[in-house]
Amino acid sequence: MSIRFVSALALSAALVCGVAACNRTTAPSEIGLDLAAMDTSAQPGNDFYNYANGAWQRNTEIPADRSSIGSFYRASLETERQVTELVAGIAGSTPAAGSNEARIANFYNAYTNTAAIDASGMAPVQADLARFNAITNRQQLSRVLGEQVRADVDPLNATNFATENLFGIFITQGLATPGEVIPYILQGGLGMPEREYYLSNDADMVRLRGEYRAYIERLLTLAGVSDARARAQRIFDLETQIARAHLTREQSEDIPSSAAVWSRAELTQRAPGIDWDAFLAGAQLPNQQRFGAYHAQAITRLSALTASVPLQTWKDWLTFHQINAHADVLPTTIDQASFAFYGTTLSGTPQQRARARRALDSLNAHLGDAVGRAYVERYFPASAREEVQGMVENIKAAFAQRIQGLTWMADATRAEALRKVQTIVVGVGYPDSWRDYSHYEVSATDAYANAVNGERAEYAHQLAKLGHPMDRNEWWMTPQTVNAVNLPVQNALNFPAAILQPPFFNAQADAAYNYGAIGAVIGHEISHSFDNNGAAFDSTGALRNWWTEADLANFRQQGEALARQYDAYEALPGLHVNGTLTLGENIADVAGLQAAYDAYHASLNGQEAPVINGLTGDQRFFIAYAQTWATKMRDEALRGRIATDGHAPGMFRALTVRNLDAWYTAFNVQQDQTLYLAPDQRVHVW
Q1: C-alpha to C-alpha distance for 459 and 171, rounded to whole angstroms
Q2: Is 373 helix (H, G, I), strand (E, B) or coil?
Q3: If DSSP codes are grouped into helix, strand and coil, which group holds residue 541?
């Protein structure tokens, strides 16, 4: 759940648990909770995370093909089992030509046929490499850079620092153009996660730079590119310059300061160097007159680099990134080298996932709606959709009631806040309309072509939004995604079908469990409309200040207190959570958990919750919440998470409970205990 930049422009807020899917392997008890995961020798007031998850933390090993595990794994495994069964059936059949089933079968069979991929060698990519090598002037370079642009559509991909292309394009209602859909231009061009990997003096970052430089050379060598060492050095040096041109992650998170809209003339005037006419022709935007310049300063600096850096260096850079971005559909040696760096060196994962499982990931990326439609038809019951829709309405009502009760908020601010809650569009399970893939040609034998054509099909799908009103019902996640998302520009939420199963939702469990688990997720996503970024948008998705000066100061004061709280959490010796970077997620956790708690109590209709297995309803609610954040990460992945991710690691998100008065009562938490916060130090925000 993050509001970051592609997150800022989708503006999506996604529930994410790290580099890989999180894991829980034990079955739920009759009350939904995983009682075997708990360590009841731990005192909740001293170590609530281990009280809820300690036995699981001790006894669970991170699988060799993962960098982290946690509570999401159970849902991910069941979804993967179902999708594997579904796709295997389709791939082994003879579906009608031109159907979605035929596209799924062709894509899957081509991707899993590594013998054919190896036999083809580097032939599939040669036409693209020849296109780069044919560049002889800046105009041609600019056009090719435009041709390489792909749509940024992943709401989990933060500010998209690591896009393989120099600029990314994201299309939605503009931050400063309510009612008008425009293309946003984003910074890109890096092969490592973000700028600090190139610029930080931290010893681990310095080491990773050396590993990356060696990886570039190795990939070029394996691809048969001549003079690999010299080319690799030029590429690495160029990316270091690109990193210096980038805005920092903190700057990129400053949404109100990033709403610049440039005309076509201003684009040329403010970002000289690149030939924008040639670039936009290549990017299929020759007649576009207005652009969102989200990373305005970076756009100017990156454009200047196209004029100052030698053409041959750009050609080398294009060659490397085309190969690097498609390593999984090129020969095995290329694929393995890519995993060795990105999987093992960067994330600490010793073993690559099985090819068939990775094929599902790639299918979801390129044919996600086609797979999703078949998935929900077979596996998602209408009853689950209806029950969760009811929970959503209950939690919306609880959030609205909390807004009504805020003594510090002025009436004008309160009225718009209530409008946001009342008009939010909530999608549960799956979208009401499905994507048309009829223009996506999928080969049964050419995995590389399928990947490239899939990128082009997605880009065309995004370009088609221009000139039309924003669709508030648009989904940004597939139904088979174990996740959820908030989209402030649309004032909308998506709760995919795959997250509406254990351990997040269990129709057989009592209300305390479901409100503590999926209820907190729902509350979190609603609350993202009111976190430090989401609160800058009104009920229509327009970026405007609808706060009184005093209300905004009070809100920011609460946020600063929460940031300090998270700054104190130490993930590894000397490595602390960044409370400012994770503030949006933390605000949503606090407000969402409180709204879910209120809705849970409202659902009891004045009755006392039963005591089950010696646990009160409130205790079950808070334990359920903490168990959704069971997390175990390799040190490399944890360092990367702290450096780049707007989400705090799960073990710290579980400690959100410290800010709810009811938690202290539920577990009799005393003033001398480690997690105790004095009432005036508890952050309530909403």
Answers
A1: 10
A2: helix
A3: coil
Say how far apart CA 364 and CA 434 lie, in whole Å.
14
Provide CB contacts within 8 A for 249, sequence distance 6+: 4, 158, 159, 161, 194, 195, 196, 581, 644
Check residue 582 and report its DSSP letter: T
Which tens digit of pLDDT belongs to each residue from 437-494? 999 999 999 999 999 999 999 999 999 999 999 999 999 999 999 998 888 889 999 9
How are beta strands 177-187 and 290-293 bridged, if at all?
A: parallel
Residue that the structure tokens 């010299």 belong to: 230
- 212 within domain boundaries: yes
- Which range of residues forms the domain containing residue 565? 6-15+36-84+358-681
Residue 30 contacts residue 513 (beta carbons within 8 Å): no
Q: Are residues 513 and 615 located together in one domain of the fold?
A: yes
* Residue 611 DSSP class: P
Are 595 and 509 part of one and the same domain?
yes
Residue type for position 307: A
Give the DSSP letter of residue 615: B
Q: What distance in Å separates the CA atoms of residue 461 and residue 411, rounded to the nearest whole number?
A: 42
- d(CA 502, CA 518) in angstroms, rounded, equals 9
Helix residue spans in 339-491 (DSSP H): 355-379, 382-404, 411-423, 447-463
For the domain that residue 201 is a member of, what is the CATH number? 1.10.1380.10
Instruction: Establish if 129 belongs to a structural domain.
Output: no
Structure token pair of residue 480 = 């088979």
Secondary structure class of 212 (helix, strand, coil): helix
Q: Which of 497, 495, 491 is nearest to 472 (CA)?
A: 491
Backbone angles phi, psi at 156, to 5 degrees: -90, -5
> What is the Cβ-side half-sphere exposure of residue 571, based on CA atoms within 13 angstroms?
27
91 part of a folded domain: no
- Give the number of residues written for the chain: 686
Alpha carbons 523 and 518: distance in angstroms, whole number: 9
Separation in Å, CA 81 to CA 128, 243, 428: 36, 40, 22
Q: Does residue 584 share a domain with residue 460? A: yes
What pLDDT, in 10s, does the model give residues 109-121? 999 999 999 999 9
pLDDT of residue 159: 38
- What is the Cα–Cα distance from 516 to 135, expressed in whole angstroms? 58
DSSP 172-198: EEETTEEEEEEEEEEE---SSSSTHHH
Answer whether residue 334 is part of any domain. no
Q: Give helix 583-603 / helix 549-567 axis angle, nearest 10°.
A: 100
**What's the rounded Cα separation, in Å, for the pair 677 and 564?**
13
From 26-30, 77-81, 331-335, 530-534, the region with the lowest mean pLDDT: 26-30
Same domain for 362 and 323?
Answer: no
Pairing of strands 261-263, 290-293: antiparallel
- Clarify whether residues 380 and 319 are in a common domain: no
Q: Which residues pair with 182 in a beta bridge?
A: 172
The CATH number that applies at residue 578 is 3.40.390.10
Please check the confidence at residue 29 and state whether its pLDDT lies above 60.
no
Helices (H), 92-202: 100-112, 114-120, 126-133, 138-147, 196-199
Same domain, 464 and 553: yes
Are residues 387 and 496 part of one domain? yes
Within 10 angstroms of residue 500's Cβ, the number of other Cβ atoms is 26
pLDDT at 154: 57
Q: Which amino acid is at 181?
A: V
The rounded distance, in Å, linking the Cα atoms of 216 and 235 is 8
- pLDDT at residue 507 in the model: 85
